[in-house]
From TrEMBL:
A Pfam family the protein falls into: rve_3
Coiled-coil features, chain-numbered ranges: none
Integrase catalytic domain mapped to chain residues: 1-144
SUPFAM superfamilies listed in its UniProt record: Ribonuclease H-like (SSF53098)
GO molecular function annotations of the record: nucleic acid binding
Protein name per UniProt: Integrase core domain-containing protein
Entries under InterPro entries matching the protein: Integrase_cat-core, RNaseH-like_sf, RNaseH_sf, Transposase_IS3/IS150/IS904
One GO-annotated biological process of the protein: DNA integration
Domain of life: Bacteria
Length: 151
């Protein structure tokens, strides 16, 4: 922002690059990360493994317990092991260069609205070469099992 910082927390599906849940917060408290994690679980179910980096919000007892309570395994990257979290790191770069660096937000609400609009566009409209030019929404939908029609 022009003055100060906001923090983007996301849960990303590795295979499709789809942002499953997100939040722009003004602090790095674990409660924000837990909120985003719970939203992703509630909307999309629980994964076998949750991968995260070693930020204080992700190593906090509250966050680790939220993962364990769902029966998920935790995979935390090693210090300096950026490749372990490559899809989120790529998303950060994309968000920064395609949205954040283009604006000097004057308020938290302005930053929040702009970034959340961008993430919706990213999921719905931004094709990825690694996904065969599909958008994250298209790739995620293509991976879902077919549901038979009721007779």
């Amino acid at each position: 922002m022009a003055k100060g910082y906001v923090y983007l927390i996301v849960v990303v599906d590795w295979a499709s690059r789809k942002v499953l849940a997100s939040k722009v917060a003004i602090t790095l408290e674990a409660a924000h990360a837990v909120d985003v994690l719970q939203e992703a679980f509630n909307r999309y179910g629980k994964p076998e493994i949750v991968n995260t980096d070693q930020g204080s919000q992700f190593t906090a007892h509250e966050f680790i317990q939220a993962i364990k309570d769902q029966g998920c395994k935790i995979s935390m990257d090693g210090k300096g092991a950026w490749r372990d979290n490559i899809f989120v790191e790529r998303l950060w770069k994309t968000v920064k260069y395609e949205r954040v660096y283009l604006y000097a937000y004057d308020s938290v609400n302005e930053a929040r609205l702009s970034i959340m609009q961008y993430l919706a566009w990213y999921n719905q409209s931004r094709p990825h070469s690694s996904l065969g030019k599909m958008t994250p929404d298209e790739a995620y939908g293509a991976m879902l099992p077919a549901v038979p029609l009721a007779a």
